[in-house]
Amino acid sequence: MAPTIETIVNVERFPIFHSGDDGYQSLVSDISNQLEAKGCAVLKGFIRPEFQNLLSEESACVAQHAYGKVEAVNVYNTDVTAEYPTDHPGRIIMQKGNAFVARDQIGKDAVIARLYENCDFKSFIGQCFNLDQVYELGDPYSGLCVNVLRPGHEHPWHFDINEYTVSMLTQLPLDGGVFEYCPNIRTPQSENMPAVLKVMTGGEDVKIERLRLQPGDLQLFKGRYAMHRVTKIIGDQQRHTAIFAYSEIPGIIATPERSRQLFGRVAPEHLRAEMGNARSDNLMD
Fold it and tell me: pTM of the entire structure?
């Protein structure tokens, strides 16, 4: 019999299944404060050490299905052939070398699949983000996925399509693979393109936070508003990360262009979404 989620999570340190306890409320308050201050919070050792190998084995099993076409992208993952003003960050072209395993390629019995759909976990995540409720994405591919970074590749600067991202490192590379981000660099009302451009061109006084995550660490992140990347992988071991994407409104679906970039395919839902999908802001993707 597969171990339960309650067994796999380090509930002594993170009592996410006991919302009425003082420890639960204290944990939520601490995480919320971190998210407010820096747009990011890390729960070190969220998964018990004895189950970290299971996570690694599951991600390694599906990693072979990852779509990993190396291609040119910009920070907004929009059409790189479009014409932008000379000082627009979208003009800067980068090489995207990361690969993704889509949700429909992850077994429903996998630990990350059961955690993503767990009602207590979603309630906990919502409270940490100060939301009454969070929703799984309506996207058939990107709600839950595994990010695979192979040796010599990196995930360049970008923003997430969803406001609230939760991720968990499942396999650590030998070197490199550092998570870097710029907290709250844009808001729902402003792209703040001068600051984005400054980061991408190596300008002075740029605030970049750096995290060296470990397998089993749970990361809560406001990825819609924080520009972020993962640096190049060094050595012959891949970096695997489970990504749990949530939104405060139901029905969030990626654009066809974004789906093609991430997964190499487009579902009927993406085509329908192109004509009026749900969005919580009017930012570039």
Answer: 0.87
202: pLDDT strictly greater than 90: no
Q: Is 2.60.120.620 the CATH number for 5-265?
A: yes
The predicted-structure confidence for 46-73, as pLDDT tens digits, reads as follows: 999 999 999 999 999 999 999 988 889 9
Q: Yes or no: say if 180 and 209 are a contact pair by the CB < 8 Å rule.
A: yes
Backbone torsions φ then ψ of 234, nearest 5 degrees: -115, 135
C-alpha closest to that of 143 among 83, 183, 103, 197: 103
**CA–CA separation, 239 and 149 (whole Å):** 5
Q: What tokens appear for 219 in the block?
A: 């990361």
Q: How far is it, in rounded angstroms, from Cα 276 to Cα 285?
A: 14
Which phi and psi (to 5°) does residue 71 adopt?
-150, 165
Longest dimension (CA), the chain: 59
The neighbouring-strand residues paired with 166 are 220, 244
Contacts of 184 (CB under 8 A, 6+ apart): 39, 222, 225, 226
Residues 6+ apart with CB under 8 A from 217: 42, 43, 44, 45, 46, 168, 169
Domain extent listing, the chain: 5-265
The 3-class secondary structure across 170-222, one letter per residue, is: EECCCEECCEEEECCCCECCECCHHHHHHHHCCCCCCCCEEECCCCCCEEEEC
